[in-house]
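[Archive record]
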Amino acid sequence: MSNLHELDAYLLGLLGKLEAPQRRALARAIAVELRRRQSARIAAQRNPDGSAYEPRKPQLRHKRGGIRRAMFLRMRMAKHLKAKATSSAATVEFTDKTQRLAKVHHFGLRDRVNANGLKAKYPARELLGFNDGDVDHITSLFLAHVVV
C-alpha cells in the first residue's frame, strides 16, 4: 500500500510541473476516454463491479410484435452524457434534464411512471462508476501524456 502512496506523490509532482493548458488538454483526454468507457459499459448493461443490471419488469401491455430495446439507449449518447474538463478536474456527468432520471436508476429510488402519478420503485443500476480497468487506463493516459 505504501508503494501506491509513493506513486501518487510522484505523479502529483509530475502533474504540478505541467502548465495549465497542458493540464486542461490532459483532463480533456481523460474525460473523453472516461465518457467512452462509461457509455460502453452502460450499453453492455453492466455495473462497475462487472455484475449485470437487474432486468426490466415484464410490461403488462406490450405492442404486438414490439421490439424490446436496451435500457438507457439515449442516456449514453454524447448529447446527454457530457465530458467536461478544466485545468484542475475532469468530469463525466449527465445533462440537467437527464440527471434526475439517471439519479433514480443509479440509486434505485421511487419515481413516477406516468403522468397519472403512478409510482414505482426502480432497482439500483449503477450508471457511472470506476472499476480497476478505468483506473489503469487513466494512469496509462496520464503517463503517455507526461512522457511525450
About this structure: Strands lie at 81-85, 90-94, 110-112, 119-121. The mean pLDDT is 86. DSSP finds four helices and four strands in the chain. The longest helix spans residues 20-43.
